[in-house]
Design brief:
The protein is α/β, with parallel strands linked by helices. It contains ten helices and 14 strands. The protein folds into two domains: about 110 residues, Rhodanese-like domain (Oxidized Rhodanese, domain 1); about 140 residues, Oxidized Rhodanese, domain 1 (3-Layer(aba) Sandwich).
């Protein structure tokens, strides 16, 4: 079936995706664990190793891959300029949303994530297969440079911390945010960041779909996230915070960036300030001179 020029939501229902399975312009990407993909997957879904979305260099393994690797990603998946990408995973959307964010950084916005992923797809009776996905031709979409509007790098974040011009969204657990758990040389959070655990935006009673729009908007407003503000999301490696990024875009927040270096970079850089405790300003802000 030939591809139709269509606009699909950022978070798409499984039933709508099922109607598109025969569309030649749809590229379905499976970011489930390999053992899950080998047992069942959406028919025609192309498996992708999550590591291809990351720079992979310690300590900040979540930094973007090089431009050449990003272009190779699109070639490997068979993405063309007029393709429509639909991604899913088996863990609530974090890996699928990281693919969506990478593509946004490349200036490619024709991408959606299946709301609820393989859990919603399989549990609600949509077709699955264990058959290997047929080979496909390489994709032709590529870029000459990174699209900066979706990306926040370390120096940009540091400047926003200093001038207060952006709201920082910390998608990690409360224990990581306060500093009780540390997966870097230092624990805590970026000063001024507001904590909303990405898991608290999912509905466990609806196969890990996002909560309803009304519920999410109320949750965000109560915490101080406003649609007109620039918001920078981060976690440990920009995995969980990619989900937060796409959730905000889904709700109509236009000025959203992802900090891919995330806490793995910030928490390991002694020249940058950190805060600890449950409040955005922290019970103690450690300056670079402390």
């Amino acid at each position: 079936m030939a591809s139709a020029d269509m606009s699909l939501p950022l978070f798409i229902e499984p039933g709508q995706v099922e109607t598109l399975l025969a569309d030649d312009g749809i590229v379905i990407v499976d970011l489930c664990k390999p053992e899950v993909h080998s047992q069942l997957h959406v028919p025609g879904a192309r498996p992708l190793d999550y590591g291809m979305l990351l720079g992979g260099v310690k300590p900040a393994i979540g930094l973007l891959p090089t431009r050449d690797r990003l272009n190779q990603l699109c070639a490997t998946l068979g993405i063309h300029p007029d393709s429509r990408v639909v991604a899913y995973d088996d863990e609530g959307g974090g890996r699928a949303c990281r693919l969506a964010w990478n593509l946004h950084v490349m200036g490619f916005h024709r991408v959606s994530v299946i709301d609820g992923g393989i859990h919603a797809w399989a549990n609600e009776g949509h077709p699955v297969t264990a058959e290997p996905t047929p080979a496909h031709s390489p994709g032709s979409f590529s870029i000459a440079e990174i699209e900066g509007s979706a990306l926040a790098v370390r120096d940009y974040v540091a400047a926003r911390v200093a001038d207060g011009a952006s709201t920082l969204f910390d998608s990690r657990s409360a224990e990581e945010y306060t500093g009780q758990k540390a997966f870097a040389q230092r624990g805590g959070h970026i000063p001024g960041a507001i904590n909303l655990n990405w898991l608290d935006t999912m509905d466990r009673n609806r196969n890990l779909r996002l909560k309803t729009r009304d519920s999410l908007e109320s949750q965000l407003d109560a915490l101080g996230f406003h649609p007109g503000d620039e918001i920078i999301t981060y976690c440990q490696t920009h995995h969980r915070s990619s989900h937060s990024y796409l959730m905000l875009k889904h709700l109509g927040f236009e000025r959203v960036r992802g900090y891919a270096g995330a806490w793995a970079e910030w928490g390991n850089d002694s020249s940058l300030p950190v805060a600890t405790g449950p409040e955005p300003g922290g019970t103690h802000t450690i300056s670079p001179t402390d």
